[in-house]
Structure formats: C-alpha cells, structure tokens
Design goal:
About 25% of the residues lie in helices and about 15% in strands. It is α+β, with helices and mostly antiparallel strands. The two termini are about 50 Å apart. It is elongated and about 80 Å long.
Length: about 400
C-alpha cells in the first residue's frame, strides 16, 4: 500500500471533525473507540491523509496510557491492513512498529533529534534498521568502559544510495503483504485453514483484516472452510483447492460465475495466532451478475469437468487412479468454472503439476459438472488439450 510523505502531512488540515472526535475520546481514555472511528473512515477512503495521521496519533500514544486505558487497543485493530501505509518495517528482520517521528516532525518546522530511537533510516529510500539489527551488526568492545556512550550508526544497503548514512527521523515505510483493494469492490473472501478443524469467524477475521482493508463488520463477506491435510502443500494444490471451493460457492449462488478469474490467492504461513496456515482468496465483484432464473452457462463462463490422462511408453491413453481405492488421483479429475477460451491455459496448468511423471499428458474437458457421473464416454468429450498446445481440439480416436 502507498506510503505517505511528510510534506503531504504538513499540508493537511490542522483541525477537522475527525481530529476533534478522536481527541475527545482519547481524553476519556477510550483508545479502542477512537481507533474504530478512524478505521471506519479509512474503510471508506483508505488513502485519506487526515485519517492516516489521526490513526498514527492514536497508535503512538504513550504505552502507559494505552495499558491503563479502560478501552485498550486490540491486536486486530493495531495491525489492520488499513494502517499499512503508516507502518514502519525493518528492512533486515521485518520487525514492525509505528514511529512517533512522523507525528513529531509533521507538527514542527524544525527537526529535533529523538534520543534512543527504535531504529534509524536512510532519508532517501527509507531503508530502515531496527535497534536489534543495529546491535547485532555493531562489533562488541571488551575494553571500553561500561558507561561509555555508544554511537549507533549504519549505512544504507541500497546501491543507488552510495552508502548513505542512516539517521533519524524514521518515517513510515509501508507494510508488505497488505493487499490494496477497494473494500466495496469485494464480492466475497474465501478463507481456508490447513487442517480438519474449521476456523471460527474471529479466527478468520484476525487473518483477513491484517491483509485486506476490511473490518469486523465485513464478516458476512467471509466464506470459511477447512482443508484436509496435504491439500495446501504447494501452489498447485492450493490453486486446485481454491478453484474447487469457489465453484461450490458459485453453485450455491453466493458468487457470480467465473469467480476464479476475479480472484487473488494469498498463502499466509501460520496465521497471527500461529494456529495454522491460511489460504485467503478475495474475489472482486463481477461487472455482470446473472439473474437467478438465467441458465448457469447462458453468458460467458460455464462449468466444465476436466480429466488428465497420460500415455505410457507402451499402451494407450489412461487415467491416474489410486491402486487401493480406484479413485482418481487427486488433482486429475474435477469441475471448474471458466470461459471456453481459458480452457487451454487451465489445461497446461494441470499438465504441469504432473510433469515429474515424464510421460505425455493431455486433458479432456466435458461440459457441465460430471464429477458424480458413473461413466464418461468419448461421446461426452467437449474438447482435448495436449501438452504444449494453446488450443482446444475436438476428440478423435487415436489422437496423440
């Protein structure tokens, strides 16, 4: 998300309705309500300068005031994606904090040098090192007096800055990982946690609000699911899982068709509470929503069933099945929602997942969801995509 420059903050209004409201709440010690007011404003306008400035004012109040407040801030509030632009992150270890320097310097034309800063920063590119990383890089002296003053120094690691010295102020760097999206353009968010236990709404919100500009009031947008062990083992497996679950939501009428084409995939390793890996899939609103009475495939995207086949060195095209159960090998058979034009690209993704097998591969497509069919025949084939092909071909006997 965009970081804001100090010069822009200096030009922002000094007294607004938001500043008055938040100031009154802070006087009463109501930090949580104060930050809620700011976050609601940023939800409507994520790049509002006044909102970001006031948010940082709340976040940088004294630790004692926050701890003794009758309404202390919550973790979900403090690390909301809406606050990513005013976050400072260490370039070496990714430690994150909210620096008071932006507030101090925005209200004063003269710069003062803060004592004992949490970190130091390149004033050109904002390469930043936190105090711990600076200490780790400073050589230890065994001869200096215990009470001798320590000089904290460092140089910018970016070549374009030519070893520029790191100093203060330490200003916001922005927070990587937060995804900039218009909150009102989000149709839904699929939330999947690795493991057999479905996360609660609070569990899901703790992850989603950290990476997407949403608030707890947006909980109705969340569609929460669990994943069986191994279903999120790699990118291909996560994509297959997301496709399948999005298709289920389309069948339920919760999402418009072709939700896969309007989605992003975010893999979160061990969520904020360390309770497991998450897959977050925000889906943007469709510009065209089918009416409930319209046939599913009447416009653009349709439902197709895919089946991967391999060609052994000796023999004919065959499917991959579990020798014990007789079920199709995971990822070789399933249903999806897509346009006919996108099927060749989807087929190549499926083929690539099994490139380690070494044999020739192809993907057959059937119209509709045929995953519950007892038997599929060549007469049902909609088209075939072979390895390396960019087109969908009709089925023919003996085709290689």
């Amino acid at each position: 998300m965009q970081r804001f420059e100090l010069a822009e903050w200096k030009r922002s209004p000094r007294l607004t309705d938001l500043r008055r409201t938040v100031g009154d709440l802070l006087m009463e010690g109501r930090h949580r309500t104060a930050l809620d007011e700011v976050l609601r404003g940023l939800r409507r306008d994520p790049e509002n300068l006044d909102g970001l400035y006031v948010a940082l004012s709340v976040l940088t109040t004294s630790r004692t005031a926050r701890l003794t407040s009758p309404e202390p801030l919550t973790e979900m509030q403090q690390w909301s994606a809406l606050l990513a632009p005013v976050t400072t992150a260490c370039s070496a270890c990714d430690t994150r904090w909210y620096s008071t320097h932006a507030i101090l310097f925005a209200n004063n034309d003269k710069y003062s040098l803060p004592m004992n800063p949490v970190g130091i920063q390149c004033q050109k590119c904002r390469y930043t090192l936190c105090r711990d990383c600076l200490n780790a890089r400073r050589p230890t002296s065994y001869t200096a007096d215990v009470d001798a003053p320590e000089i904290v120094a460092g140089s910018c690691a970016n070549t374009a800055c030519d070893g520029r010295r790191l100093t203060v102020p330490v200003l916001p760097t922005g927070r990587p990982g937060a995804t900039p999206m218009d909150p009102d353009a989000i149709e839904g968010v699929l939330v999947v946690r690795d493991g057999p236990i479905r996360p609660t709404t609070d569990d899901a919100l703790a992850v989603v609000t950290r990476f997407l500009p949403l608030l707890p009031e947006d909980a109705p947008l969340l569609h929460i699911r669990e994943a069986r062990p191994g279903a999120m083992s790699d990118n291909a497996a996560r994509d297959a899982l997301a496709r399948s679950l999005l298709l289920d939501l389309e069948r339920e009428g919760v999402l418009a068709p072709d939700s896969w084409g309007r989605s992003r995939r975010m893999h979160i390793l061990a969520g904020p509470e360390g309770d497991g890996d998450y897959l977050i899939v925000p889906v943007q609103r469709s510009l065209r929503r089918l009416s409930p009475a319209a046939p599913h495939a009447a416009s653009g995207p349709g439902t197709y069933t895919y089946l991967l086949q391999i060609l052994p060195l000796r023999g004919s095209w065959a499917t991959l099945r579990d020798p014990r159960t007789g079920d199709f090998h995971e990822g070789t058979f399933g249903a999806l929602s897509a346009t006919a034009e996108s099927l060749p690209g989807i087929a190549q993704e499926i083929i690539k997942r099994f490139e380690r097998m070494g044999q020739s591969r192809r993907v057959m497509f059937f119209e509709g969801d045929c995953t519950q069919e007892q038997r599929l025949t060549t007469d049902d084939v909609y088209g075939i995509v072979t390895e390396g092909s960019a087109s969908l071909s009709p089925y023919s006997e003996g085709a290689e």
